[in-house]
Amino acid sequence: KLKEVIRANDDLYFVFEYLDQNVYQLIKDRTTDLPESQVKSIIYQTLEGLAYMHKHGFFHRDLKPENLLATGDIVKIADFGLAREIRSRPPFTDYVSTRWYRAPEILLRSTSYNSPIDIFAMGAIMAELYMLRPLFPGQNETDQIYKTCAVLGSPDKTDWPEGFKLAAQIGFSFPKFVSTSLSTIIPNASAEAIDLMEKMMQYDPQKRPTASQCLEHDYFKDFVAPVQTSIYGKSNKGFFNKANDTTSNMRKSSGMSKRLESRKSKLESRGVNKNSFYKSKQK
What we know:
Transferase(Phosphotransferase), domain 1; 2 domains; three-stranded antiparallel β-sheet; two-stranded antiparallel ribbon; globular; disordered C terminus
């Protein structure tokens, strides 16, 4: 949630609510699997956010574990620097989304992609939460396609003709791979989880379910989302909790908050606040 907007000279400062950590930090040093209930909670809340975002006409374009922030049991999507309007007219840039979570159509330089790229990224993130490592750790764009095909199998021309057109335009030929069952790669995932991931990571973006459809999947049957509480009130004792002194040390080590407060005071003394900023933008 955006808490404040501060304008100082030619600089804009956006002050957001503070969340303890991101999902990458949650899994990077783990040596034991995340319980499926935790994976389910993370994915459900993120899909809720995506469903809301897509409904209101935007898609994120850079979903990855680092951009999923959390506090208590609550997960929120961050970093909308690459977000676009769904109704925006192509062409879009093909260099979006962090490589390991990049949908095949983007890897093939499509300039007319849309919100299904967020769904593919969610499938890759979900797999990573179970595996505790990336599903498609490509070293470059070409290797990324190879890594994707090695898991999902090579696409069939009849199933995704648009993909073969894109490949031909850049002189690329798909490698010949037979798909590897996700249940073999991710044995700790339930059958429902495997089915959802397979649907989200289909080659043809038109065949991927929407975020709202994902929320109706059997994987989430009987799931109850955590109740959100204010981060300024009593925090949840959830699976994201970390030692409070880590937060304290982070804040002490950064002088940004003090600099912002100083600038904010100067600005307010000159009658500049977020309301006047918005008014000036509307003129």
